[in-house]
Amino acid sequence: METKGKIILAITVIILSALAFWGGWYYGHFTVPAGHGCKSEPMRQNGFKFVRPLLVCDTNSQKDLRDLAPLQKNLQDIITEETKNGDITDASVYFQDFNSDGRIDINPDEQFNAASIGKVAIMIAVLKMAQDDPGVLSQKIKNGGGDDANASQEIKPADWAKNGQIYTVGQLITLMIKNSDNNAFSLLESYASTAQLGIVFKDLQIPFQFDPKQPELYDFITTKEISYLFRVLYNATYLNNDLSDETLAILNSCDYKNGLVAGVPSGTAVAHKFGLKTYVNDSNQVVKRELHDCGIIYHDKNPYLLCVMTKSASPIPNIENTIKKISSAVYQFQDKR
């Protein structure tokens, strides 16, 4: 019996030692490095008496898993090189792996003009209304005329809301997102109302756009804040499952292919939205462009969110090439994980 007891004790010690070794190895490889611990910061929806619905599990962007270090260095090197080349002056990148929840946030404090990415918020606001009243999407709105809001766009929509024609709200959403149509955007912005939009921005803790009479204040949002629009859709925590799925399908149909999509293999689903804002001087010369592309890349094993926002005075193709390089680097990294 004494011998048997010693054997059992020895086996127990071996098992506990193995568990301790495995735990230490796991922590060392898949958790944040020493000195980089991060506290979980959930985002919850306000406005209720007894519940606070969970929207995003963690808003902390410093969940830098050790195995992401090579990717972070690569992305920083690309930004440095593109800046030296003069293709960009500033860039921010937000990355989140949906399997490991690891994140990279490069230049996190830089603020940008959301430009047409703000159309995602308009879509969510209208669909939030449709969640309470399914008839919203079939309601008809007439484009009553006025100036074509797409006239000054450098990247023209392939299709748009025509003057004098009638569209359903659902059709306008598709035109606004798939084709980035500013006419549809204007009609839906009026339909949703400033109050309804304000609710969405408040719920998702995203700063609301400043006074349009003060264009110098247009740079007001970060890549991480933009990420919330896509994260709540992927998690289906703000709209219901069906509406979230339909919304991401519309984003996947976006006809702009020169940014994130250009950096991944053909056929890869990418639910994304680009934005472009160009500033000119009195002589109509470009002094600054802000070109962005943000969305979810559905890698078959390692889906992830990627948001790239840039500032530059370079031609649009140069900036697009920078976004493409960043997108390609991330996809290749995810492909090897």
Strands, helices and their partners?
Layout: H1 2-30, E1 43-44, E2 54-56, H2 69-85, E3 90-97, E4 103-106, H3 118-132, E5 140-142, E6 166-168, H4 169-178, H5 182-203, H6 223-234, H7 241-252, E7 270-280, E8 286-297, E9 304-311, H8 316-336
Antiparallel strand pairs: 1-2, 3-4, 3-9, 5-6, 7-8, 8-9
Helix pairs in contact: 2-8, 3-4, 3-5, 4-5, 6-7
Structure description:
- The protein is of the alpha+beta class and 337 residues long.
- 41% of the residues lie in helices and 16% in strands.
- Helix 2 (69-85) packs antiparallel against helix 8 (316-336).
- Mean pLDDT is 86; it is low at 19-38.
CATH class: Alpha Beta
Query: Taking Cα atoms only, what radius of gyration do you get, to the nearest Å?
Result: 23 Å
Count of domains: 1
Query: Proportion of β residues?
Result: 15-25%
Low-confidence stretches: 19-38
How much helix is in the residues?
40-55%
In N-to-C order, the SSE pattern is: HEEHEEHEEHHHHEEEH
- Helix- and strand-based class? alpha+beta
Number of separate helices: 8
- CATH homologous superfamily classification: DD-peptidase/beta-lactamase superfamily
* CATH architecture label: 3-Layer(aba) Sandwich
The number of E-state strands comes to 9
Give the CA-CA distance, first to last residue.
Answer: 50 Å
- Return the average pLDDT rounded to an integer: 86
Rough shape? globular
Oligomer: single chain
CATH fold category name:
Beta-lactamase
Give a short account of the largest sheet. 5 strands, antiparallel
